[in-house]
Design brief:
The chain is globular. α1 packs antiparallel against α3 and α3 packs across α5. The protein is of the alpha+beta class. Helix content is 58%, strand content 15%. The strands form two sheets. It has a two-stranded antiparallel sheet with strand order 1-2. The protein has a two-stranded antiparallel sheet with strand order 3-4. The relative contact order is 0.19. The chain is built from six helices and four strands. The termini are close together.
Length: 108
């Protein structure tokens, strides 16, 4: 699932998607902040990813992932579950609605 995340990452970071400016990604980043938007997009693109996977994929610290996940969780956009030593996040229906509203439907 790395390809959808890469395309969505490009959209969130102001790249181009399908030959058009990624206005939805820019709006999502403006709404949530670019790192938080990237966390949401990556969780949506790969629900099997652990928090540690997100650290490596996003190139940020574990504390940063944890902080942004906490805000997304309190906002009702993701849920979090701990399994053994791993932490996994999942996008809620509200989170998917936010992504869909910003043209980020490829995250499913």
């Amino acid at each position: 699932m790395a390809a959808p995340a890469a395309n969505l990452e490009e959209s969130v970071c102001g790249g181009y998607r399908a030959g058009r400016p990624a206005a939805g990604g820019e709006a999502l980043a403006a709404l949530l902040g670019s790192t938080r938007a990237r966390v949401l997009v990556h969780v949506a693109a790969d629900p099997t990813a652990t928090a540690t996977d997100l650290v490596h994929r996003l190139g940020v610290s574990a504390a940063t992932v944890s902080q942004h996940a906490s805000v997304l969780r309190r906002s009702g956009l993701i849920t979090t579950r701990r399994t053994g030593g791993s932490v996994r996040h999942a996008v809620t229906s509200l989170g998917h609605a936010v992504l869909d509203a910003h043209g980020m439907d490829g995250a499913r």
